[in-house]
């Protein structure tokens, strides 16, 4: 177990550098590591139950690290200020991309619940994948660059909230007595009420308890202790959300949002960066471990069709409203920047997959993994070409979006 964890950690670091040179997101390499372990087990039985349990634990901690960083990198006050413009693009984009994803999955032949999982997963985006071309072009601080970040952050948050609703109603949808929409609505309303109460508690903590806590940490604790305390509290909040019937992802996102106003020395603490770099790859390695080799061939066709749906849903759903509120000539590049699906999309599929193959069949799991790999690998080059073909705003090295950009 120790040998595998140590070896996988070193391999993840090597592949991260290799992917950076090839201009691929590192998650591509991480998923391939997991798939390699899965295939190796068929030859040499290295993934016994104890080892698999250790990797599952590390994957869960990686999930918490990923979503905590998403929340930590968000700026709720800035999002509220930008909401009138960004919300038009965000709302239409979510509706169109989710609808296209759902009906594409139904057309492929998936049942209603797996199709809902695909639709919800395809509402999310991953701005971290499309971000390097914006940074290289010096356009991240421009009006369109800020709009991309705002819409992507709203996509992330709404994707996790939609996931919470989906996970809450899946037991009702799969009860075996047909779809009782009255029960679904009642369950959804109860879940929304609980989620609102949980969010209110997080707001109270962030508004009145977090500021004196972080001031005390900055004054009385040195690195890495202060960031470890923040991470420990975030883990407790994530676990509490899981115990209340939500998921670890919901709790970790809200925990990150609670500390999003913390001083920069908290955000940029090297202790957290090291912890994040160690844990986050294991979530994607876990995805590779869950891929069924026998289902990969069947996933090629479904993955290709869902890839088309993923691209068209975001491009159409984002470009049309962007023509109304975005700077002239920037609608297409903003829309293409929303195409990548990575951490949030796979978190949704992974969490729904815990309900069994009836909810997320191996073919759908493999198909969504293919969508993630393809959109993450191809989008940056397209965004780079589109940015090169249009004038961009000046760089903003110290602007308010830098924490979000760190994702």
From TrEMBL:
Keywords recorded for this protein, A-Z: Antiport, Ion transport, Membrane, Sodium, Sodium transport, Transmembrane, Transmembrane helix, Transport
Keyword Membrane: yes
Keyword Transport in record: yes
Cation/H+ exchanger transmembrane domain location: 10-387
Compartment annotation: Membrane
Membrane topology, from the record: Multi-pass membrane protein
Protein name: Cation/H+ exchanger transmembrane domain-containing protein
Native organism: Spiribacter curvatus
Taxonomic path: Bacteria, Pseudomonadati, Pseudomonadota, Gammaproteobacteria, Chromatiales
């Amino acid at each position: 177990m120790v040998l595998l964890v140590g070896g996988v950690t070193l391999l993840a670091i090597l592949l991260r550098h290799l992917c950076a040179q090839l201009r691929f997101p590192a998650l591509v390499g991480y998923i391939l590591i997991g798939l390699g372990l899965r295939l190796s087990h068929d030859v040499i039985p290295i993934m016994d139950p104890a080892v698999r349990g250790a990797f599952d634990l590390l994957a869960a901690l990686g999930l918490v690290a990923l979503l905590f960083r998403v929340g930590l990198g968000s700026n709720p006050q800035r999002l509220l200020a930008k909401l009138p413009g960004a919300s038009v693009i965000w709302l239409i984009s979510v509706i169109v991309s989710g609808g296209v994803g759902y009906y594409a999955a139904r057309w492929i032949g998936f049942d209603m619940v797996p199709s809902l999982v695909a639709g919800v997963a395809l509402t999310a985006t991953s701005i971290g994948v499309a971000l390097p071309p914006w940074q290289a072009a010096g356009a991240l601080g421009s009006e369109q660059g800020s709009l991309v970040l705002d819409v992507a952050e709203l996509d992330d948050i709404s994707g996790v909230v939609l996931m919470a609703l989906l996970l809450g109603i899946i037991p009702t949808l799969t009860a075996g007595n047909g779809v009782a929409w009255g029960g679904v609505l009642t369950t959804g309303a109860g879940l929304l009420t609980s989620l609102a109460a949980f969010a209110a508690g997080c707001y109270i903590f962030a508004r009145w308890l977090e500021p004196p806590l972080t001031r005390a940490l900055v004054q009385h604790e040195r690195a890495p202790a202060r960031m470890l305390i923040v991470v420990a509290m975030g883990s407790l909040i994530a676990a509490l959300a899981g115990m209340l019937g939500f998921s670890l992802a919901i709790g970790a996102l809200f925990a990150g949002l609670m500390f999003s106003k913390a001083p920069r020395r908290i955000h940029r603490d090297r202790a957290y960066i090291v912890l994040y770099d160690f844990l986050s790859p294991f979530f994607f390695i876990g995805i590779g471990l869950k891929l069924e080799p026998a289902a990969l061939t069947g996933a090629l066709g479904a993955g290709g069709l869902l890839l088309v749906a993923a691209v068209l849903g975001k491009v159409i759903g984002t470009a049309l409203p962007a023509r109304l509120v975005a700077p002239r000539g920037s609608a297409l590049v903003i829309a293409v920047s929303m195409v990548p699906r990575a951490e949030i999309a796979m978190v949704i599929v992974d969490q729904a997959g815990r309900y069994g193959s009836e909810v997320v069949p191996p073919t759908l799991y493999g198909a969504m993994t293919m969508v993630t790999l393809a959109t993450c690998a191809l989008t940056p080059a397209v965004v780079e070409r589109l940015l090169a073909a249009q004038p961009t705003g000046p760089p903003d090295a110290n602007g308010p979006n830098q924490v979000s950009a760190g994702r």
